[in-house]
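Tokens for chain A. Residues wanted.
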């Protein structure tokens, strides 16, 4: 796998223990039985071609092979490949050394791409998912076992993974696994899940972007910002209260709902003015459309409260003319653009940019001009 420095350190430190831990090596018979049962529900009922990427010691590959599936397993570690080959001896499974993000296999040859606790560690996971989808036959599926665990947290949340999979079209079904102690051999208090992604055929995929809404709540010359925490994206950075639209929801209704859910304010439609519309691209290539709304908080209004302490560590008021540097870059660009009188912005990160605002970094905000309204009769 091509993994970043933090993830590489994690995997290198854990590699010597993978074959001994019940949740990785599946050596405990009850744990192994629990995973076998779950795996049958995620894989096709008839024998199929399964590609296990980042296979480790081959525990899941062995379960799939035992049910009659034709398994190809890939891992970057020669040591893991040797262990997997020994574990899969007596089966028809093929085990090869290779990069999970660019596996050495043909496109369109598999019914299932099976991946466990790997996607989170790969740079540009959106691009990786597209490559994995291209390995599937029509009607194939990705089976992605992931989660968020540890302190500081590692992994990828189900919400972020669903966003990454959205451009593939088709459907994504998430099943939470953390409550099933049989799978882990113990109780766990963090997020564990499987996402079964059935991509649309490549020829029918359309470009899609997430639509989100952001609230610039102003109190005089100050703006309310929330510090993200435990979300898996931009944690520790300040950002305006925000969220994604739900199916069938318009942007104004979505902003009213998010204000209620995140900071406990009941805003009326007439209290919201559109401040900015922005197309934003994250450093990993994911794109979205953001609608930024302005509302004003005056003396006597209810105070904002942190209604989502699992996602936000604090709320605070910050001066518009002296914003802090530890902000999400595109939120900072939107506020600066709004104050400069811009109403439409492109904010397109390049690979290698930071999610955080960088005072000395490249300027990625590009204002878009608005057309003059023609005068009648001219």
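Reply:
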């Amino acid at each position: 796998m091509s993994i970043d420095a933090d993830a590489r350190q994690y995997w290198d430190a854990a590699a010597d223990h993978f074959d001994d831990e019940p949740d990785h090596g599946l050596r405990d018979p009850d744990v192994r039985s629990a995973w076998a049962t779950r795996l049958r529900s995620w894989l096709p009922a008839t024998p199929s071609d399964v590609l296990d990427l980042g296979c480790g010691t081959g525990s899941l590959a062995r379960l799939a092979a035992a049910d009659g599936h034709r398994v190809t397993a890939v891992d970057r570690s020669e040591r893991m490949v040797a262990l997997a080959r020994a574990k899969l001896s007596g089966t028809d499974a093929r085990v090869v050394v290779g990069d999970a993000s660019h596996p050495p296999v043909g496109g369109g040859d598999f019914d299932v791409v099976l991946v466990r606790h790997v996607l989170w560690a790969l740079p540009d996971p959106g691009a990786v998912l597209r490559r994995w989808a291209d390995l599937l036959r029509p009607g194939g599926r990705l089976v992605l076992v992931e989660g968020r665990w540890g302190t500081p947290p590692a992994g990828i949340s189900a919400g972020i993974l669903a966003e990454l999979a959205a451009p593939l079209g088709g459907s994504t079904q998430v099943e939470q696994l953390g409550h099933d102690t049989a799978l882990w051999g113990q109780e766990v208090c963090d997020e564990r899940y499987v996402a079964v992604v059935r991509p649309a055929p490549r020829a029918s995929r359309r470009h899609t972007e997430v639509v989100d809404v952001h609230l610039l709540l102003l109190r005089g010359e100050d703006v309310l910002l929330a510090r993200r925490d435990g979300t898996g994206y931009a944690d520790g950075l300040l950002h305006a209260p925000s969220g994604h639209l739900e199916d069938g929801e318009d942007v104004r209704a979505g902003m009213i709902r998010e204000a209620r859910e995140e900071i406990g304010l009941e805003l009326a439609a007439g209290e919201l003015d559109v401040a900015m519309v922005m197309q934003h691209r994250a450093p990993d290539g994911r794109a979205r459309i953001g609608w930024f709304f302005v509302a004003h908080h005056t003396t006597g209004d209810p105070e904002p409260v942190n209604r989502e302490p699992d996602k936000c560590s604090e709320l605070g008021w910050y001066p518009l003319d002296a914003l802090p540097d530890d902000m999400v870059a595109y939120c900072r660009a939107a506020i600066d653009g709004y104050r400069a009188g811009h109403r439409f912005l492109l904010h397109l990160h390049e690979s290698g940019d930071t999610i955080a605002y960088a005072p000395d970094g490249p300027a990625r905000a590009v204002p878009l001009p608005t057309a003059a309204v023609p005068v009648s009769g001219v």
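The longest helix spans residues 29-42. The chain has two domains: 5-204, 210-367.
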